[in-house]
Amino acid sequence: MRSVSLLSYRTLEGNFEEVAKDWNSEWMVTCEFITAESILGGEAHLNMFTVEVDKSRPVTDDGRYVLEPTGYWYLGELTKVMIRAVLVPQPDDNSIRYTQPIMYGTNQGSLGLVVQIDDMYKKFLLSIEKAISDAEKNCMQIEHSTYRSFTYNKRIEPPSGFIDGDLIESILDMDRSRAIEILEKANTRGWDPSIPKDPVEILKIIDDLSRTH
């Protein structure tokens, strides 16, 4: 099945009406709603992506909105199923709260969790992600942004709209002195004033994140 379409059920007529469509060519395997107007999708080339109804653009000639891409991510495994659920309840004392949790399962038996986080934490987590990827090379010796790029035939999209939780949590397995050294180099520009900049406090926040799944 190519691309994603958003349908609305018309009760009186007893049929479905196509409200919006993603015009990019994606060989879909599974998808799940994030909200009523945004969708998380998994396609056959081991990628994930998100789309959202773009109401700022005029509808097409046949009265449909466009589902505009808002995120691209290379997962590296084939996503077979998605469901709105969690394995464990969100801890009450968690530093970072999340919403709209979606669990996914892959053909290799992996389970993963995609959640929505408040905008105030996005710059913080992205800067931690970059600090770790700059300091620690993966086993393939390629850039993290290159590895996570959405790739489909000759089409390549840089990773966007996703934060690599696995990479961020990997700092918890490092020697503590090495972890603190990396966090001290994180770019704190644009962080919300309420977010601590002390590496020890940052490690506590990352540890909180690791307890959400």
Automatic annotation (TrEMBL):
What is the recorded name of this protein?
A: RSE1/DDB1/CPSF1 C-terminal domain-containing protein
| Gene3D superfamilies, per database record | 1.10.150.910, YVTN repeat-like/Quinoprotein amine dehydrogenase
Q: Which domain of life is it from?
A: Eukaryota
Which GO MF terms does the UniProt record name?
nucleic acid binding
InterPro entries listed in its UniProt record:
RSE1/DDB1/CFT1 (IPR050358), RSE1/DDB1/CPSF1_C (IPR004871), WD40/YVTN_repeat-like_dom_sf (IPR015943)
Task: List, for all copies, the residue spans of the domain called RSE1/DDB1/CPSF1 C-terminal.
Answer: 1-173
In its UniProt record, which GO terms are filed under biological process? Answer: protein ubiquitination
Instruction: Kindly list the GO CC terms recorded for this protein.
Output: nucleus
